[in-house]
Amino acid sequence: MRSRSTRTKPRPRHGSLACIGIGITLGSHLTPLARSYLEQADVVFLAASDGIVEKWIESMNADVRSLQPFYGAGKSRLKTYREMTNAILTQVRAGKKVCAAFYGHPGVFARTPHQSIRIARREGFEAHMEPGISAEDCLYADLGIDPGALGCQHYEANQLLYYKRAIDPSAYLILWQVGALGDGGRGSALAATNAAYREILIRRLARDYPLTHHIIVYRAATLPIDTPRIERIALRQLAGIDIEVADTVVIPPARKLVPDTRMLRRLEKLARAKA
């Protein structure tokens, strides 16, 4: 009797890719494992938040290549990300041990790491992601928020305007990249028009929050000598202040949690049945 042939997984090719997170604050967020990938790589590609951070990473490996030159004024971010991915994969395909290091967490608001890992794995290369401390982690610590207490909703600011998303005002609402409102992937600064887009955002948020409701503009510290931006303003003031892409808008709950009496009765009935 002829035995069935079994499928075998393709053997990994020689090149490899590790996408790591270096955290937000210089020096204090890099894990020992992430550092080992930096030090042992043949080639390091780096997307850092600060020139000082770039110099620090360059001290750990002889071949560190910044991804910043791929950005350009008026250049589509999607094109930029494709070029970054191609540069990383070119070295992987050449048989190199590649480390791609990204500020914060490499899987959070970062298209290139996800895309690079997917393509590398599809082509038979060993590839994985090593997590890092993200701006979200810093936010919880700096603002003293426990996401398990009242819950948190996270939306990219453009997405909140483009789609019908539900907001629960009894939980924290965290809006990312408010400084890039209206960008649409073009990568341009939009400094002159962003305030107009924020006016539209205010009108959207006013469906669920009073204009007098206090919100927080937050930015994590990237250098140990820096302090985080924690600016409390009324919702109606959001369009009139300086906002950068790195700034996050945090909206505390405006309503108390409303008990679900029907569900509570059902749970009580179940508890009595088990007693």
Mean of pLDDT: 91
- The helix-and-strand class reads alpha/beta
Distance between the termini: 59 Å
CATH architecture of the largest domain: 3-Layer(aba) Sandwich
Question: Notable features of this structure?
Answer:
single chain, 275 residues, alpha/beta, Cobalt-precorrin-4 Transmethylase, domain 1, Methyltransferase, Cobalt-precorrin-4 Transmethylase, Domain 2, five-stranded parallel beta sheet, five-stranded mixed beta sheet
Structure description:
By secondary structure, this protein is α/β, with parallel strands linked by helices. The strands form two sheets. A five-stranded parallel beta sheet has the order 3-2-4-1-5, with helices on both faces. Strand 6, helix 7 and strand 7 form a beta-alpha-beta unit.
Q: Which helices and strands occur, and which strands form pairs?
A:
Blueprint: E1 16-21, H1 32-40, E2 43-47, H2 51-58, E3 64-66, H3 77-93, E4 97-102, H4 111-122, E5 126-130, H5 135-143, H6 147-150, E6 152-156, H7 157-162, E7 172-176, H8 191-205, E8 214-219, E9 229-234, E10 248-251, H9 261-274
Helix pairs in contact: 3-4
Short description:
By secondary structure, the protein is of the alpha/beta class.
